[in-house]
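Quick one, probably user error.
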């Protein structure tokens, strides 16, 4: 029995070692595999990513001045947030895309010298890696090398985001702490919601749907700023969003000087502007903190109504916005002295649901919402613009109608100024003329001329009698 248990332990440890070796990391912190089924991937040129210098556009001496001329390196002095930009930023962007022939030759010569120096070491290392029992190379690294690479990666990751991880871990600990329910009252609060898109009307409409018709009602829904929110809003009104969400200049400089960057990585940077500008983890933390800027106070007519809404809505998702209701009962002796930022006393009869998604709660790509437009203001502006354009169209239509009426009045048969047109022989119309075109206007003129001639002959007969 002991020998079997020892065999099982050895098999388990060997499986763990194979799993650990199959998930090694390279110098850039990316996971690689030493699975023999995928050994050819490391040597096949089809899977080799091109170097950063290989994708640069080569310039000859005729265009060398482009990298030094100010006309090609004119860049803004501040970014869209008002922060000063480096004067060398435009030149660095040009050097990232273009390279001179001399620079390329120098790089090739340096690579050749480095290749000669490392040739002997490569040959000696190949002897060590050769597996005589199987007749092939062993590409797996030694345990000491794996430990060193793991230690380097761990030190880099810990040094780059120690403070941020501490804050995130602290938030996780606070979320895991059990929160007492408290005594049930007729008031409860809704917290941790996306207040950039949710209004008191939305909460009133949602909670009113869980009230029994005619027997229970919601008196009011008021949204107040929290103490944390007031401090942050005042600070952001003066200084903008916190500087911690932006990447430091040292990290940007390391990214620019990284010559092993692949073309796919550069393409990802172009498609995703946040990769160059924001620290994703810090930005996510900031966006989650914005959920605490406000809180809603819902006042019901009775404790039973508040209890029923709490039981039905607490922990439920609002539409498909990734916002889950976090409801807390409010003691009766608690008062709120601040002026509400928004309030609602009755659910609207005509309600249009909001359509949004909070990226920080659902998506891996988080966007900064500090400078986003107010949805209600945007809708109001669109409505105002539509009303203005509709009014202008109505004015133009009325103006055209008035002009048409004037033209009809001027060409009216009863206008004495056009009597000669119907009575004088100078304006007689001959329908038998080959150039005559039968139209409604011509028929009207002929009918009016015939009517007047008949009327004239009748008057002559009556006067003769």
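Nope, works fine. Designed sequence:
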């Amino acid at each position: 029995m002991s020998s079997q248990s020892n065999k099982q332990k050895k098999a388990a440890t060997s499986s763990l070692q194979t799993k650990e070796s199959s998930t090694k990391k390279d110098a850039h912190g990316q996971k690689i595999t030493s699975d023999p089924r995928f050994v050819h991937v490391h040597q096949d040129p089809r899977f080799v990513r091109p170097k950063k210098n290989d994708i640069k556009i080569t310039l000859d001496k005729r265009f060398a001045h482009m990298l030094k001329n100010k006309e090609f390196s004119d860049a803004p002095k501040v970014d869209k947030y008002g922060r000063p930009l480096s004067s060398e930023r435009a030149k660095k962007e040009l050097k990232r895309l273009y390279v001179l022939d001399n620079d390329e030759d120098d790089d090739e010569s340096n690579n050749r010298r480095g290749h000669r120096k490392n040739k002997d070491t490569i040959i000696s290392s190949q002897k060590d890696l050769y597996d005589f029992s199987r007749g092939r190379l062993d590409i797996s690294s030694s345990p000491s090398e794996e430990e060193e690479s793991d230690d380097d990666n761990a030190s880099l990751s810990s040094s780059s985001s120690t403070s941020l991880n501490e804050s995130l871990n602290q938030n996780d600990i606070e979320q895991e702490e059990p929160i007492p329910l408290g005594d049930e009252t007729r008031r409860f609060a809704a917290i941790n919601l996306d207040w950039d898109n949710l209004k008191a009307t939305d909460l009133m409409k949602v909670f009113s749907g869980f009230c029994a018709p005619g027997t229970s009602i919601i008196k009011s829904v008021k949204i107040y700023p929290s103490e944390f929110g007031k401090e942050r809003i005042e600070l952001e009104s003066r200084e903008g969003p916190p500087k911690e969400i932006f990447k430091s200049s040292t990290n940007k400089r390391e990214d620019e000087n990284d010559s092993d960057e692949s073309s796919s990585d550069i393409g990802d940077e172009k498609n995703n502007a946040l990769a160059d500008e924001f620290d994703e983890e810090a930005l996510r933390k900031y966006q989650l903190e914005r959920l605490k800027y406000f809180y809603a106070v819902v006042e019901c007519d009775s404790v039973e109504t508040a209890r029923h809404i709490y039981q039905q809505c607490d922990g439920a998702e609002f539409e498909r916005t990734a916002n889950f209701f976090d409801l807390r009962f409010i003691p009766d002796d608690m008062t709120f002295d601040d002026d509400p930022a928004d309030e609602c006393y009755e659910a609207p009869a005509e309600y249009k649901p909001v359509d949004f998604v909070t990226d920080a709660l659902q998506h891996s790509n988080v966007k900064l919402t500090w400078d986003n437009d107010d949805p209600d203001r945007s809708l109001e502006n669109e409505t105002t613009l539509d009303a203005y354009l509709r009014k202008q169209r109505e004015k133009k239509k009325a103006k055209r109608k008035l002009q048409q009426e004037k033209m009809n009045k001027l060409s009216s048969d009863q206008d004495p100024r056009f009597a000669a047109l119907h009575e004088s022989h100078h304006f007689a119309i001959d329908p038998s003329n080959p150039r005559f075109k039968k139209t409604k206007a011509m028929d009207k003129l002929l009918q009016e001329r015939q009517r007047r001639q008949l009327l004239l002959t009748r008057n002559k007969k009556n006067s003769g009698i």
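The longest helix spans residues 375-410.
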